Amino acid sequence: MNNTTTARTGTGAATGPDITDWRPEDDAFWNSTGKKIAYRNLWISVPALLCGFAVWGMWGIITVQMLNLGFPFTQAELFTLTAIAGISGATMRIPASFLIRLAGGRNTIFLTTAMLLAPALGTGIVLQHKDWPLWAFQLMALWSGVGGGNFASSMSNISTFFPKRLQGTALGLNAGLGNFGVTTMQIVIPLVMTVGLLGTFGGEPMTLVKDSGWIFGKIAAGTPTYIQNAGFAWLLSLVPLSMLCWWGMNNLKTVSPAMGTPAGSPLVAFAKITYLYSLAFVPSILMLYLYLPKPTGLGLLSMWVAIPLDVILALGVMKLAAFGEMKEGVKKQFAIFSNKHTWSLTALYIVTFGSFIGFSMALPLAITVIFGYQHLPDANGVLQHTLKNPNAPSALTYAWMGPFIGAAIRPVGGWISDKVGGSIVTQVISVVMAGASVAVGYVMMQAYGSATPEQYFPMFLGLFMLLFLASGIGNGSTFRTIGVIFDRTQAGPVLGWTSAIAAYGAFIAPVVIGAQIKAGTPQYAMYGFAIFYAVCLVLNWWFYLRANAYVKNP
What we know:
Blueprint: E1 4-5, E2 18-19, H1 27-57, H2 59-68, H3 75-96, H4 99-103, H5 105-114, H6 117-126, H7 134-143, H8 145-159, H9 167-192, E3 206-207, E4 212-214, E5 217-219, E6 224-225, H10 229-232, H11 235-248, E7 251-252, H12 266-291, H13 303-321, H14 325-333, H15 340-371, E8 373-377, E9 383-388, H16 395-398, H17 401-420, H18 422-447, H19 457-485, H20 488-502, H21 505-519, H22 522-545
Helix pairs in contact: 1-8, 1-9, 1-11, 2-3, 2-15, 3-7, 3-8, 3-12, 3-13, 3-15, 3-20, 3-21, 5-8, 5-11, 5-12, 6-7, 8-9, 8-20, 9-17, 9-19, 12-13, 15-18, 15-19, 15-20, 15-21, 15-22, 17-18, 17-19, 18-19, 18-22, 19-20, 21-22
């Protein structure tokens, strides 16, 4: 059987997985053949990416429920679970950004989607054992990072299918609808925890010791809860999705030259993906061991040292471990680092996607800790944060709203940027995010010093919704800019690389916000974010908006 298809003008849809001729900038080819193939790959990519986000981000919700069920871990230890998932997912994006060229789009998206089955199943198992040590939960959080890595390969893949004039819209749809995985997870997990989803195969429920909630309101303490379904639920969608990726997607030989040859067979491609993904765990584990406090780690490094070292080690491991034709492929991909726009757009994407995923990870537990307790002075006048607040809003009722807004608006951001230019849109949202961060920091300060913090919750929630709105629009605008500045061979790797570095927001935000809450100064976290947004606003102006900009409003 010949598994290589030559898609030429007028031939219609491809009948095999490997496409030899791909000319999306040719209008005749695009209208007769390319459009149908491109959109088929896009619409399969979206739900696969959605599940990747769901598995990666699920620890933000799981930790809240672990707190409500009385798992024997401190708030700081629970914050480390979301942070571990964050750094793992970010690190996995570094090799993921190179996978499409090395292994093909169809091969990569199929296998990385199927890989999500392991952390979903493992998480369901460990959550049934409240008495298991913290490291068992940390291991599952680390493994969930596979879902975070999938974004880089997914975006790199979709960027190769569409003409430049549709880059903002196509990437906005893939990323924006894929980002709904965070919202979907935050809605689905509280729902499936209320029922015995898998019957006797799913294990026994635990009993809430604190009030919990879902999108329709509170769930009272004493209610049986199947927290293990937070992992098990994704098995029901990942199996059919993996099959759909295999049978419905394509490899482009113009992007992945080895496809259709013995060196590019599916088994060889799977070996490359597994090899590079496995290597990515090495720097993550090492950096977490050096960063995390005892007894889990050594507590030797600050986060600001650990992250750059993690990135450098991940790149170094990839370069040293590549062999054969992989070595040449990795070398070509590394060429993006000599372009100054790679670095400017990386910073700008941290503003947008870094904020989106970081706040998504940190918001549920932040709501629980800031508004779930009354903040009262003791006999010595020192504020205490241990007395339960009977009027507390449930994080599981409200936390999904921000990621929903950010994901829903992302395609709109791409579309607007296609019309008016990406950089002007990025500039506007940077101003909004800087102002909103200062405001939300002030509100957090007021709430964390109040006996009735719930009175500040509407303002807190509204400001965070504004942050998510702006970050969602900016996600689309930044990716549109990348699609215009870089040619087709480099745009994919740059998209993957910028998304990888921005994904460290999923590690930074929970750690920074958690540490400042512990110190009694949650506002400092938000003020720090505002300063960073202001710096990047100047950077965007210098590179893309001033009179003699390097590239004018791409």
